[in-house]
Amino acid sequence: MARFIARRFISMVPLLILVSMMAFSLILLLPGDPALAILGEERANADNKAAYYALRAELGLDDPVPIQYLRWAGRAVRGDFGMSIRNKTPIGETIGTRIWPTAELALLAAIISVVIAFPAGIISALRPNSWADAGATLAALGGVAIPHFFLGILLIYAFAVWFRVLSPSGYVAPWEDLGQNLKLMIMPAFAVGTGLAAILMRQIRSALIEVLNQEYVITARSKGLAERAVVIGHALKNASIPVITIMGQQVGTLIGGAVVTETIFAIPGMGRLIVESISFRDFPVVQAAVLMLALSVLVANLLTDITYGFLDPRIRHD
Predict the structure, then answer these.
(1) pLDDT digits over 3-16, tens only?
(2) CA 3, CA 9: separation in Å to the nearest integer?
C-alpha cells in the first residue's frame, strides 16, 4: 500500500507544477496594473512617474515573466506567498483565515449530498421504474439543472424573508458559536450540495442495479440472507467504488460552487477573497488562492485513489 500511495503522490508533482504555471500566467492576462491600483490614476500621472516606476520595480513587475514565476514558485514552496498589495499583510495569514469557511462549506455540502444521495439511490435501485424511482430521478434532474446561485437566492427568499427562520447571510466560526454557525451555513451548504447529490444518486442507482444482478448477490439471496444484509453487507460496498471515484472528480465542482455561493451568502472564504483581490488587481493574493484551491483538488483526488485502493485491493497492484 505504501508503494501505491507513493506512486500516486509522485504523479501529483508534475500536475501541481503545471497548475502553478497556469495560475501564474493566466493572472498576468488580466487587465490592469497593480502599481496603478495602489497609487491611483491621479498619483501615477506624469508628475509622479518616478514613484510609479519605483513601485513597479519594488513589486518585481519589470522582470521577465519566467523570472517572476521562478521567484514566486520558490517562495511558495517554502510557504511564503509574499505580501498583499492591498493590505500589506502576509498572504499566508490571509489565506489561513479565509480557507476554513470554504473548507467547512465544501465539507457540509459533501455531507448533505451523501445523506441525500445514498438513501435515494438505494431506494431507486431496489424499486426501478416505480413512483419512488421516478420521483428521485425528477429530483436529480432538478438538482443538476438549477444553478447554485439561483437556488441560494430562492433559499434566502424562502427561509430568511418569507418564513424568517434563518439569517440571510453572514458567518460565525464554529468554535465561537456552533449553533449559530450551523444556522448560517445550512442554506449555502444545501445550495452547493444538491447538485452533487443529484449526480451521486444516479450513479448509486446504476451501480447498485448492476451489482444486484451479479452472481454472488444472487447466491447470497439463495442462502436466505435478509435483503438488508444483502444490500448493505454485500452489494453496497462494491457499488460504492465508482461512486467514490465520482465524488473525487466532483471536488473541483464542489469548491467552485462554494466560491460562487460565498458571494451570495457573504461568507468570508476563499471565493470572496479571490473576487475582492481581482477587483483590486491584487495579483499575488489571487495567484496564491488559486494555487491553494488547485492543491486541495489534487489532495482530494489523491485521497480518492487511496480509498479506491482500500475498497478494491486489485487497484493497489496496478
Answers:
(1) 767 777 787 888 88
(2) 10
Mean pLDDT of the 122-144 span: 84
The answer to whether 188 and 195 have CB atoms below 8 angstroms apart is no
| Mean pLDDT, the chain, integer | 81
Max intra-chain CA distance, the chain: 90
- Rounded Cα distance between 205 and 248, Å, is 18
d(CA 87, CA 257): 27
Instruction: Measure the CA–CA gap between 288 and 284, rounded to whole angstroms.
Output: 6
Higher per-residue pLDDT: 44 or 203: 203
Other Cβ atoms closer than 10 A to 174: 13
Instruction: State the Cα–Cα distance between residues 51 and 40, nearest whole angstrom.
Output: 11
pTM of the model as a whole: 0.80
286, 27 contact by CB (below 8 A)? yes
Contact between residue 37 and residue 85 where contact means Cβ atoms under 8 Å apart: yes
Please report, to the nearest 10 degrees, the dihedral formed by the alpha carbons of residues 6, 9, 15, 18 taken in order: -100
